[in-house]
Amino acid sequence: MSRFINVLRSWLLLVSLIAAGNTVQSFRDHSFLAHKLYTGKPALVNGLQARTFGVWTLLSSIIRFSCAVDIQNRTLYHITLWTFILALGHFVSESLVYHTAPITIGVMAPLLVAGFSILGMLMGFQYLEESQEVAAIPSKKRQ
C-alpha cells in the first residue's frame, strides 16, 4: 500500500474522530451550533435541528472511519467521498444562499476539511488503481 494511501487513512481516521466529538456536542448543547456555525440566524437553531445535525455528523463519522479501516473497498471509498461533497455543499449553501452561516472560523474549518479531503480522495484514486492492478497480476508458481 502506498504511503499516500496510509496518510489518507490517517486523515480519515482523524476527521472521523473529530466528527464524533462534534456529534456529542450537538446532542449536549444546541447553542454550540448557534454560536459556532449558524451565527447568521442563530434563532433558527433549536434542539431538533441540532440533534438532526448530530445524527448526520455521526453517520459521516462512521462512514469515514469505515473507509479508513477498509480503504481498498471502492464502493465505501466513493460513499466517503460523497460525505465530504455533501458537507461542502451544505456549508457553502448555508453561507452563500441562506446566509445562516457567515464565513467565520467556525465555518471555515469544515469548509477546509471538506475541500482538502475531496482533493486528497480524488488524488487517492490513482493509488487505489495502482494497488489493485498489482494485486491482479498473477504470481508464477515454481514447479
The number of helical elements comes to: 5
Terminal Cα span: 29 Å
Mean pLDDT: 91
Judged by helices, strands and strand pairing, the structural class is mainly alpha
Show the helix and strand layout:
Blueprint: H1 3-28, H2 31-36, H3 47-69, H4 74-96, H5 105-136
Characterization of this structure:
The chain has 143 residues and is an all-alpha fold. It has helices at 3-28, 31-36, 47-69, 74-96, 105-136. Helix 1 (3-28) packs antiparallel against helix 3 (47-69). The two termini are 29 Å apart. 24% of the residues are buried.
Descriptors for this entry?
143 residues, elongated, mainly alpha, 77% helix
Entry summary:
The protein is mostly helical.
